[in-house]
Amino acid sequence: MKKILYLFAFVLVLSLPACEGPEGPQGPPGLDGVDGEDGEDGIEVLNLVFEGVVTFSEENDFAIGSQFELGQGDNLLVFLEWAQAEGNSLWRHLPQNVFFDEGAILTYNYQYTTTFFNVFMQGNFDLTQLEPEWTDNQRIRIVLLPGFFVDENARVDLSDFDAVMELIGKDESDIVEIDFD
C-alpha cells in the first residue's frame, strides 16, 4: 500500500506545472561606462630584459648604474653570470656572496628606485686586491618586472632566471644589449 502511495505522489509531483508569478517592475537604468579598446588576449611588454658586460674597478667605485623609469609596484631583478655549465650560462640572482680564506667576504648586490638602479660590489676587505676574474667582464642581466606579473604569478621563483623568462614570455632573442660605459 505504501509503494502505491509513493508512486501516486511521485506521478502527481511530475504532472504539476511549474509555478510562475507576474513579472516584476523594471529596475532603474544604470550608468553607461566608457568603452575600452579592444585588445589581444595576451599582454605584450617590450624590452624587459637587458644584458651588459661590466668591469667593477676602483675608478667606478666598484659599481655601475643607470637612469630609467620603473612604475610604482614594479620590480627589478638582477642576475650575474656565475659560471658556464656545458656551454650554457649559469645565472644567479643577486645578492650573491663569495667566501674567501681568513673570513673575507665579497658581495655582489644591487639597489633600485623608480628612477635609477645600481649594481655594486662590497666586501670586508680592500676590493682593489681582488683578482680580475671577480671584477672584469662580468655579464649581468637586468629584468624589469611589472607588478602585475608578480601579483598574478606569486608562486614563480623569481631567483630562477629561466622561470622569470618563461613568466614574461621572453627568450634569448628578446634580450637587449646595453653598454654601461
TrEMBL record:
Keywords attached to this entry: Signal
Signal peptide as annotated in the record: 1-20
Protein name as annotated: Collagen-like protein
Naturally occurring in which organism (per UniProt): Cyclobacterium plantarum
Organism lineage: Bacteria, Pseudomonadati, Bacteroidota, Cytophagia, Cytophagales
